[in-house]
TrEMBL record:
This is one of the proteins that binds to the 5S RNA in the ribosome where it forms part of the central protuberance. One of its GO terms (molecular function) is 5S rRNA binding. Belongs to the bacterial ribosomal protein bL25 family. CTC subfamily. PANTHER family: RIBOSOMAL PROTEIN L25/GLN-TRNA SYNTHETASE, ANTI-CODON-BINDING DOMAIN-CONTAINING PROTEIN, RIBOSOMAL PROTEIN L25_GLN-TRNA SYNTHETASE, ANTI-CODON-BINDING DOMAIN-CONTAINING PROTEIN. This is Large ribosomal subunit protein bL25. Residues 179-210 are annotated as: Disordered. The lineage of its organism: Bacteria, Bacillati, Bacillota, Bacilli, Bacillales. Keywords: Ribonucleoprotein, Ribosomal protein, RNA-binding, rRNA-binding. GO terms for cellular component: cytosolic large ribosomal subunit. Part of the 50S ribosomal subunit; part of the 5S rRNA/L5/L18/L25 subcomplex. Contacts the 5S rRNA. Binds to the 5S rRNA independently of L5 and L18.
Length: 210
């Protein structure tokens, strides 16, 4: 079933009006893309959240604006830093047969063997830049690290063959690795001496007497 969102065009851009829309359960948004002029719209928050949960963050939605339907993906959104409420959405109009550039987050799954042995899991890469048709874009790229041992890594090249889309990263770029357990530094204390008395105090006194 097609994920459909009803939308209305908006013409008033005053802050007070935008805040009133949000308080009434609506989200200001904009639709733009190839062969379509940038159009400010407003959508129902409940409808948007319901449909985006169904298709995923990178899924394709259909926006119905006054009877005209347009397939879109969420290009970006702004949220309140405190409440995390969505304040504004950018919808990118797409063609099902035309590839687009986007970023997809990376999720590490499983408990690595190296971590069980005391190693530390590092994830230097959290997103992949890809080019794909809209229906090929996954919500996230899952990378299983269960068998990863201390000193081992997972690189882009090791996962790229699993996907049909183009990944814009070098094959040797590291997604995850297991660092060795942190070694405690050995501290050499040397010979014990009376606290607060420098080693060369006696030598300094001899020089002063000469």
């Amino acid at each position: 079933m097609e994920a459909m969102i009803q939308a209305k065009e908006r013409t008033n851009f005053q802050r007070s009006v935008l805040n009133a829309l949000r308080e009434s359960g609506q989200i200001p948004a904009v639709v733009y893309g190839k062969n379509i002029s940038s159009t400010p719209i407003v959508v129902q928050k409940s409808d948007f959240l319901k449909e985006i949960r169904e298709v995923g963050r990178n899924g394709v939605l259909s926006v119905n604006l006054d009877g005209s339907k347009q397939k879109v993906v969420v290009r970006n959104y702004q949220d309140d830093p405190l409440t995390k409420e969505i304040l504004h959405i950018d919808f990118l109009a797409v063609d099902a047969n035309t590839e687009i550039n986007t970023n997809v987050r990376i999720n590490l799954t499983g408990e690595a063997e190296g971590v069980k042995d005391g190693g530390v899991l590092q994830q230097p890469m959290f997103e992949l830049a890809i080019t794909a048709k809209p229906d090929q874009i996954p919500e996230a790229i899952e990378v299983d690290v269960t068998n990863l041992k201390v000193g081992e890594t997972v690189t882009v090249g090791e996962i790229s063959s699993k996907y049909q889309f183009q990944i814009h990263h070098e094959a040797d770029e590291v997604i995850a690795s297991i660092l060795p357990p942190k070694q405690e530094e050995e501290i050499s204390t040397g010979e014990e001496q009376e606290p607060g008395i420098p080693d060369n105090l006696e030598g300094r006194e001899e020089q002063e007497e000469v």
